[in-house]
């Protein structure tokens, strides 16, 4: 019995000794990996199509975060820092053995100007980058920031509905009181009023096209805030009365 207990104790001591050695090795390995001087990052690789943000601005914004080791560098901090830059939408960070950090950058895509001083991205969200030097030809949308997605989606739906008339709008706005207005690519100003802008614009354009297929090119302004038709202001050189009503019976009547 004593010999059996002695053998068991020896096995236990060996097992404890082995565990102690393994724990020491793991601790040493962990300390080595977390050391900022272990395999220091020497290179930052940037991938992605960049139009509005430069590689220099990206690297300078995270310079203090990559002054670390291959294992110690905090990739989540890098992502959080870069996604504060206005033109950057999404960032993926990966390590490339033995001394490189790779950044995959997705830029915001500008889809419209917003209130003339900001930008809407492809989701209709407001971004507020520096616009100096930006000369892109974009639609002009406007409204309260909380309504940006609504205005952007309405703009896209209006243009989709106007394709059958070979027309499009290049500006759309919604006031704080809920009143809509627009401008066509041909420069026709449209007062829409409250309610659903898509239905009103399409019905008004359809009505005017029914009167004369070429009538839209002669119009300066359209007021769609009437229950039984639309009011039009003709261009000065068209020879028509300055303002006339087109009712739902497709008749012109002086306003």
Structure description:
This protein has 255 residues and is an alpha/beta fold. It folds into two domains: 43-107, Ubiquitin-like (UB roll); 112-234, 3-Layer(aba) Sandwich (Rossmann fold). It is built from five helices and 14 strands. The chain has helices at 2-34, 55-61, 75-82, 148-162, 197-211, and strands spanning 43-47, 88-96, 100-107, 112-114, 118-120, 126-127, 140-142, 169-174, 180-184, 189-193, 219-226, 229-234, 243-247, 252-254. An eleven-stranded mixed sheet has the order 6-5-4-7-8-9-10-11-12-13-14, with helices on one face. A three-stranded mixed sheet has the order 1-3-2, covered by helices on one side.
Present the secondary structure layout.
Blueprint: H1 2-34, E1 43-47, H2 55-61, H3 75-82, E2 88-96, E3 100-107, E4 112-114, E5 118-120, E6 126-127, E7 140-142, H4 148-162, E8 169-174, E9 180-184, E10 189-193, H5 197-211, E11 219-226, E12 229-234, E13 243-247, E14 252-254
Parallel strand pairs: 1-3, 4-7, 7-8, 10-11
Antiparallel strand pairs: 2-3, 4-5, 5-6, 8-9, 9-10, 11-12, 12-13, 13-14
Helix pairs in contact: 4-5
């Amino acid at each position: 019995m004593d010999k059996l207990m002695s053998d068991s104790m020896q096995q236990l001591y060996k097992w404890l000794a082995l565990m102690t050695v393994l724990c020491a090795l793991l601790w040493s390995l962990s300390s080595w990996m977390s050391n900022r001087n272990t395999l220091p990052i020497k290179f930052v690789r940037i991938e992605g199509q960049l139009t509005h943000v430069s590689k220099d601005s990206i690297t300078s914004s995270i310079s203090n975060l990559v002054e670390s080791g291959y294992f110690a560098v905090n990739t989540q901090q890098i992502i959080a820092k870069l996604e504060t830059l206005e033109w950057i939408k999404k960032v993926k960070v990966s390590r490339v053995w033995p001394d490189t950090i790779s950044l995959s950058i997705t830029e915001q895509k500008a889809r419209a100007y917003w209130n003339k001083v900001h930008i809407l991205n492809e989701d209709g969200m407001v971004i507020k980058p520096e616009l100096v030097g930006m000369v892109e030809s974009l639609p002009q949308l406007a409204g309260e920031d909380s309504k940006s997605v609504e205005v952007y989606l309405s703009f896209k739906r209006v243009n989709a509905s106007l394709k059958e008339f070979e027309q499009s709008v290049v500006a759309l706005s919604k006031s704080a009181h809920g009143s809509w207005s627009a401008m066509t690519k041909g420069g026709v100003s449209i007062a829409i009023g409250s309610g659903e802008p898509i239905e009103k614009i399409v019905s008004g354009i359809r009505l005017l096209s029914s009167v004369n297929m070429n009538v839209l090119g002669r119009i300066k302004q359209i007021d769609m805030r009437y229950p039984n038709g639309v009011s039009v202001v003709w261009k000065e050189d068209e020879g028509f009365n300055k303002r006339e009503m087109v009712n739902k019976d497709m008749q012109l009547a002086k306003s």
